[in-house]
Design brief:
This protein has about 375 residues and is mainly beta. It has two helices and 21 strands. The chain is elongated.
Length: about 375
């Protein structure tokens, strides 16, 4: 009897799979090796007293440089204390005499690796191009190149880059008299571009605030307080400090007999102060105002102007102070003028939660008979910062 020995053979598809697997492993290994080889070298900051920091250059201005190291963390020091600086990554050096906006030619902005000696920045673009030199004092901003390119070439979408806060507070009393008080609101702002080293192009603000209160006593009519305010404004910058704007506002105040006041207008604004700690805007506008009261015989259409100012200041320990004041005379009825003033302190509590204390004073010179001209509010609440 003859026995036939059978030999197993590997299907061709398996050979192909093995070859593909080996090729994949080789590619991954080469990629990892390439990544390891391309790891950027650390930057070096040498002080005039001989001390040295190794880490990465973050940013710089005409007066200071911000450097981050593993040992010291992020520090900001005056250029006068720095003897030398050497970076391995490319940066953009924006001189003081250059006005930057998005979607403009940036070929005149020095870009490349940066070194500093004798209070002069040397920017080496590479590729055989000659280096450029800019005095430290003539530098407006030093920004990493990827961030610079993104800022000057991309435009954010409509729902992007909004900043603001949401505030709420309540008071409940249950006794012979039952009292309910609720206050709240939100404020949104969107400034384009978001980078402070680019001149602003536009700014949009949306605000809403509400105060509702009700006191009930058995066999006695309920007493209500309703004060609502909403406004929106769009600023278009004509220069770094001058802007044109359009605005609208709606007000309802039961305490002054005001069912609804509608304000539509536009004007010119000027940023008087703007630095890392504070900003102050002055504004003037021409408005159409429609006033509707509980007593319809007081209803009227007005043409007037609004003179206003907005001031914000960053205080110690992260506390923010905000204040605004507006005065609105009517030109076709000089007795129908109004004014509003507000001030708030926002105090950090936990992460994005803050405690807000504020006052709002509204003055209306022409309310219906039986209503006071002045409406004053003192509010407290919790505020959540969106960004």
């Amino acid at each position: 009897m003859t026995h036939t020995r059978k030999y197993s053979t590997l299907p061709p598809i398996s050979i192909h799979a093995i070859l593909l697997g080996l090729a994949g492993i080789l590619a991954v290994s080469q990629a990892q090796a390439g990544q390891t080889g391309s790891k950027p070298e650390p930057d070096v900051l040498l002080f005039v007293n001989g001390e040295k920091l190794i880490g990465h250059l973050e940013r710089a201005t005409a007066t200071s440089v911000t450097f981050k190291s593993d040992m010291a963390g992020e520090i900001t020091v005056d250029w006068s204390k720095v003897k030398e600086l050497h970076s391995s990554q490319p940066f953009a050096v924006v001189p003081k005499n250059v006005t930057l906006r998005t979607h403009q030619d940036t070929s005149n902005i020095p870009q490349g690796t940066v070194s500093m000696a004798d209070q002069k920045l040397e920017i080496n673009p590479g590729g055989g191009k000659p280096p450029q030199t800019v005095a430290v004092g003539d530098t407006a901003h030093v920004v990493d190149q990827p961030s610079f390119q993104k800022a000057v070439t991309e435009s954010p979408g409509l729902l992007q880059d909004w900043n603001g806060s949401i505030t709420g507070g309540a008071s409940l009393v249950q006794a012979t008299q039952n009292s309910r008080t609720f206050t709240g609101g939100f404020g949104l702002v969107r400034t384009i571009p978001t980078q402070d080293w680019l001149n602003p192009r536009n700014r949009t603000t949306i605000d809403f605030s509400a105060s509702y209160g009700k006191v009930t006593t058995p066999n006695t009519p309920a007493i209500k307080t309703e004060i609502y305010h909403a406004d929106a404004e769009r600023d278009e910058y004509l220069s770094s400090r001058l802007f044109a704007f359009g605005a609208l506002a709606f007000d309802h105040n039961v305490s002054q007999g005001l069912d609804l006041q509608q304000t539509y207008g536009g004007g010119i604004g000027w940023t008087v102060l703007k630095d890392a700690h504070q900003d102050l805007d002055l504004k003037i506008s021409v408005n159409y105002i429609r006033q509707s009261f509980q007593d319809a015989t007081y209803n009227q259409n007005l043409v007037g102007s609004t003179f206003g100012e907005n001031y914000n200041r960053n205080l110690r320990h992260g506390i923010l102070f905000a204040e605004s004041l507006t005065f609105t005379p009517a030109w076709n009825n000089t007795s129908a003028y109004s004014a509003t003033g507000s001030a708030t302190l926002t105090i950090p509590a936990y992460k994005r939660l803050n405690v807000t204390v504020g006052i709002v004073d509204m003055f209306l010179n022409d309310p219906p008979a039986g209503f006071r001209k002045n409406s004053f509010q003192f509010t407290t609440g919790l505020t959540y910062l969106l960004r």
